[in-house]
Amino acid sequence: MRASLIQIAVNEDESVNSRRDRVSSLVRDQAGSADLVVLPELWPTGAFAYELFASEAEPLEGPTFEAMSKAARDAGVWLHAGSIPERDPDGPLYNTALVFSPDGELAAAYRKIHRFGFDKGEAVLMSAGRELVTVRLPETVAGVTTCYDLRFPELYRGLVGLGAETLIVSAGWPERRRAHWTLLAQARAVENQAFVLACGSAGTHAGVPQAGHSVVVDPWGEVLGEAGAGEEVLRVEFDPGRVGETREQFPALKDRLLGLDPPRR
Coiled-coil region(s) at which residues (predicted)? Predict the structure, then answer.
């Protein structure tokens, strides 16, 4: 399976509409060279541009939805279109990832469960999603996750329980914690015996330099490809069949012990 992770640079001098057009062209450029394309988190606004979340929030089937649907159809690819600030009809904002099939149909939408910021930023401006989301691709079942989710292994265990063999992470990860980004991507791959496709962003979002370094990791934790710090397209070919082989050769997942009793006092 051929994957293109498009590590988009967010420049504050570029309008959301201009970036939407530019990213659509980047997706179309993957026609013939990729089966799956992945974009970063909140690339229309920048993941740390909190002041834009409300003003640029869209309904689910808004302008970014329409642009990405058309780009996926034009390129003939499965497209994880990163995420958008979504405004629900009832009012709340969500950080919502969109996945499109090669015919431009919406295959999945995932509202980010773990919001970053503790007592500020995304954590207070956006509502939390409640559902784990997987999508069946022709060669693999993909689990859909977003950025800060990467720090919560129980979410990924849940996705594996739903059949996930490939774990997609769309992120706007800060440069100052880049070491955590690579480490956690490898950890999620090893512990779940799954491929991890982690697409970050470049540039600076509201004064926060981005880590870049999008990465693809195999079920043994080996890095198959890694981007640099700037805008680029990371292209990696991987064999989803290796997940089943790995889980059979080293059946660690069978030894999971769930629902343990609390310690006796």
Answer: none
